[in-house]
């Protein structure tokens, strides 16, 4: 099998022996998933694909395979679109792997891979360019202990909606890092009072979960991103609120559970590409996870084609708010 992504194709042509290496935050690529080594990813869907291929896959919040004694011979970090997230991964790798471990960093030029030179220099790590092709570049260095800890990347900020104030945990790997998204604000301003069991789908930093829990709802919050799940747990704790936060690829972790309401600001990007897949699954499968009379409430950019999806899934819907940029939709299960 040949590599499917530009970064995979660049790695495929290397003469390096990658057996036993860690592949850190990679994209979906059949060539990577069919090879050797362990994936370390905050993306549950990526880890599930590797596990389905019989490959070891862990989150950075899990116990790592082998401990210190079982450290890999090297690691490849796939540089993310968010440079702050890339810096976190570097701090994390410096903290968990022995000094001197070889590290390669690969990414697309359009994604800012060339900026890693300054980032590595700021961390006191030497670097050399190993190769470039397919509008991508590959650099290599060796890890050293850093003065900064990965946990230093976690921050907190206050979000206000009307007279309501919440403390939110924030991380570079989470949607809306360090600020309240305008679409989420419109959804919060529009939400009717809800009790019972409520699902926050795509929980991000946990503001919807905290908002609902403060009003008495029994909240379950899910996200495919391990950083988001951890942020939601921290947000609930910071505000003295209860609730459950789980990693889930849309409904994958929920089995036959049903709810009185599902609330979401669903994502529609995968890195730089538009991807309606998760939102389409959210809408299409929502009736299976709602009790009779239950409601789906979601906010979306006005240009997104969600009305057709809602019509097909529920047979009808209403628009609760529209500020020309965002719309809040509601649909009921009959």
The mean pLDDT is 92
Distance between the termini: 47 Å
Molecular shape = globular
**Radius of gyration from the alpha-carbon trace, in angstroms:** 21 Å
Instruction: Indicate the percent of residues in helices.
Output: 25-40%
Strand content: 25-35%
User: What is the total tally of β strands?
Assistant: 18
Low-confidence stretches: none
In words, what does this structure look like?
The protein is of the alpha/beta class and 334 residues long. Helix content is 27%, strand content 28%. It has helices spanning 6-12, 30-33, 44-52, 83-96, 116-122, 182-190, 207-214, 226-238, 277-285, 306-314, and strands at residues 22-24, 38-40, 57-58, 75-78, 102-108, 128-133, 136-142, 155-161, 164-170, 197-201, 218-223, 244-247, 259-264, 269-270, 273-274, 290-301, 318-322, 326-332. Strands 3-2-1-4-5-7-6 form a 7-stranded mixed β-sheet, sandwiched between helices. It has a 7-stranded mixed β-sheet with strand order 12-11-10-13-16-18-17, sandwiched between helices. A two-stranded antiparallel ribbon has the order 8-9. Helix 9 (277-285) runs parallel beside helix 10 (306-314). The longest helix is centred in the first third of the chain and has 14 residues, at 83-96.
